[in-house]
Amino acid sequence: MRKNVPSLPVKKLDTTFETIKTCVEALVCLLIDSSKLHITEEEFLTLRSLQFTDGQIAILWQFVSSKRSLVENILKHSSDSELHFRDLEWRLEAKVASRSMVKQATPIIAMKLHLDSEVVNEHKEKLQSSDGEPSKQNTRKEVLLQTDPTSLVHLIQVLEQALIDSKTHRVRNFVKSFQK
């Protein structure tokens, strides 16, 4: 058992700390997923197929429905701070020639990604806040990356394949279900 962990629940329930931890994590996942997917009570009753009793389902539904608005509010505010791509700067760095080098030098590509937690317009300017003035809050972040050409080509191929895959009906339907 870990230090600084209350042993009262473990003793009262006559179980281990890991069992209690796993159950709490499962309840939190149930609460978050039910809130994200807007599960209705009728859909929640399908837990019978997992051999839950009606009493257990009623208690779980009461828990989920009582905490749903709080979880949805937290999820909404946490998604507001996600970073979005804004701009890219890049530079190619390579040694031109050297007699002391036995093998050929590999060029390095340095990239600076500009990310922003606020949506920006096509002119790369921050959008105005609701009162008409530009936002004073610093929402930008810069990330520096270095890679070799082989890795960059592989990265480009993976991103292009992901872009092609994102245009399929299957993915569009999947994304639509989360946007509701």
Automatic annotation (TrEMBL):
User: What Pfam families does this protein map onto?
Assistant: COMM_domain (PF07258)
User: What name does this protein carry?
Assistant: Uncharacterized protein
What is the native source organism of this protein? Answer: Aedes aegypti (Yellowfever mosquito)
